[in-house]
Amino acid sequence: MRRSYENALKLLETRRRKVRPKTPATPSTTQESVTPSGVPTVKGISSLVGMKEWLQALGHSESDVDKLNIIHIAGTKGKGSTCAFTRSFLRTHALRTGFPARIGLYTSPDLQCIRERIQINDKPITEDLFTQYFFEVWEALIPLGSGGCAEASRQPRYLQFLALLAFHTFIRENVDAAIFETHHGGEFDATNVIRRPIATAITSLGLDHVAQLGPTVEDIAWHKAGIFKPGAPAFTVTQEAGPSEVLRKRAAEKNTGLTFVSSSNILPTNSRVLSVPVQRLNCSLALELATKFLQLKGHALDADDISRGIDNFSWIGRFEIIEQGNSQWFLDGAHNELSLEQAAQWFAKNVHAAHVPQHRLLIFSHFSEERDGVALLESLARALVKHDAKPDHVIFTTYQEREDGYTRIDKTLKVPETPFPDLCTIYSSLWKKMHPDTAISTEPTIQGAIKLAEQISNQKGGIQAFFTGSLHLVGGALSLLRR
Fold this sequence. Notes:
Belongs to the folylpolyglutamate synthase family. Its cofactor is a monovalent cation. It catalyses: (6S)-5,6,7,8-tetrahydrofolyl-(gamma-L-Glu)(n) + L-glutamate + ATP = (6S)-5,6,7,8-tetrahydrofolyl-(gamma-L-Glu)(n+1) + ADP + phosphate + H(+). InterPro entries: Folylpolyglutamate_synth, Folylpolyglutamate_synth_euk, Mur-like_cat_sf, Mur_ligase_C_dom_sf. It is an enzyme of class 6 (ligase). It contains 18 helices and 14 strands. Helix 6 packs across helix 8 (about 160-170), helix 10 runs parallel beside helix 11 and helix 14 packs parallel to helix 15. The longest helix has 20 residues, at about 275-295. The chain folds into 2 domains: about 5-310, UDP-N-acetylmuramoyl-L-alanine:D-glutamate ligase; about 320-480, Mur ligase, C-terminal domain (Protein-Tyrosine Phosphatase, Chain A, Alpha-Beta Complex). The protein has helices at about 5-15, 25-30, 50-55, 60-65, 80-95, 125-140, 150-155, 160-170, 210-215, 215-225, 240-255, 275-295, 305-310, 335-355, 375-385, 420-435, 445-460, 470-480; strands at about 70-75, 105, 120, 125, 175-180, 200, 235, 260, 320-325, 325-330, 360-365, 395, 440, 465-470. It is α/β, with parallel strands linked by helices and about 475 residues long. Helix 16 links the parallel strand 12 (about 395) and strand 13. The protein is globular, with a radius of gyration of 22 Å.
């Protein structure tokens, strides 16, 4: 096969599982430990199994991974923002001092293209670099199916492959620091092959991925805290009493100190980036991580680093506002109940601050095998009413971006088992039952939803349109709004 970017993406898609396994993992494949509720959660073979052997097959030792100087971040909400704030603080310090000169960032999922997941110095790696390193990993690992140890004889799945590609890229590109976001959990996550991080962190916790992580927030805390490592300072934001106790216990078990972080009083009060309370908390956590990282490397953040780090912060699709004439587009890729509550509060705060009330639109789409879209929509509706930001018009749409059916080759998108028209009908009926006075529309594409919103804006003299429910929806909207 020709080594091309398009072929790399086609091969990567073959590593997706058609369905998630339903059978609980055996103790031998999970190094079984007991979560607080005692409910077995890992299904099939855990994502961590094989990672060490695959890295070795690529020629990378544990020492090579250690030299990446990794900050490892887990949590339910705010992982991406915390990673981005941490990167921004380190980057501004580097521009002043020269260290760390090259900063790697691994996050998921992507909004607009797959290369967003693997970045160096604020930019996704190029198509050429992605292609080169993809085929180096692919050609080294696929032959392992013919023999070797039991763990290495398997081939990596989609997220495992992407994590391996990130490690390989950062090692080959000689980054001085790397920030890794976990995929879902922590203890059995593919990224937890990291044995000696510089520091670890847990962002805000809530119920999400319960089929994989357990039915209680204490179970989720147990899994997330699996990234704690002996001697690596651990940080977390203020949590509820139950998960806080679990995190303390796990830190003690793993022989590390745990620091609870609240909103820092040294952050500026007039920054638009920090106008959302949860973003102040994420920024405060990132500030602790960057400060500790640099301290351990013989450096120190100064006030200018902090100020410029906040000014230069960028994380697309999170609490983002685009203004076009009389139309204001509010975008946040919230897709669980905790994040939807925060996004609704943010939208309400901004619409209330407007001098002239405008017609409010909600544009919503959600599909997931792991989450109940109906429950999420109900939660969002309650939050918008609670914060006095109930929309005048709701548009339900799909993940399909354009009316001509075109999809970018490097846009990752799962095809739902339930047809989108059926989901839109379900969501429409639900909203009509809750709020019969709201105008409701359905559109088969994101482009169609935007066109309808623009028509309403022309009729009403302006709109405040809120995109939420899915990163796929927000990513598509951003691609169309930023023509």
